[in-house]
Amino acid sequence: MAKLVIKDTNSASRLWLARRMVTRLAAELPGRQVSVTADSAYAGEELKQLPDGVTWTTRLRANAALHDLPPERTGKKGRPRKKGQRLQSLAKIAAGAVFSQVTVTRYGKTETIAVHAFTCLWYSVTGAAPVTVILIRDKKKTGYDLALVTTEKNPDIARVIERYAARWAIEVAIEDAKQLLGGGQARNRTAAAVERTIPFMLACQAIAVCWYATAGHHPADAEARRLDAPGTPPRPSRPPPT
To answer: Does pLDDT of 50 surpass 90?
Structure first.
């Protein structure tokens, strides 16, 4: 599926569009688990409307307002609290946390990294639904390198990390779509034309990739391509540092 961002409408929100697309996908695949992975721009109140069977994992902003789970009811009159005390910043949490070792396969390599995971509320984004925050330390000696947050219940920490790393392939696919298939050169001036051109280009790309993976691939292809274009720098196997 593909959706067009349109200014001054609900479609101006990429998160609004993404949540609607995933909701439709979940409806078309009843009983299937749908796991969404996105960057920090795809986190907001729309996640309070996720359908059953859909989990959402994003990079967590350093200034995200996280809270403890709501305390037990005291038996006294009054409305029970919806959330606990606000947690410290991620940097302070990481400074006092005990990290454990996890083996993951990312960017074509298997390696052991240090992680610390905890459950909390991200009330402004997911409401009363608990989330799991994963602090990853793979280069730094203290603190953390990357923070992820997932709505998945009792998540497999290694799988969540690997899933987030796998989205780099999506970035490469978008680059290919723009540079190789001509998606970046579309010159349509109307919304209807753009709605046809870009999805058609993405469909052609998907068909070409599926054909090559199932019928056209030969191990010598990549080496032959390098010999044909010796001046072409190798594509990075992992995203650049942020």
So the answer is: yes
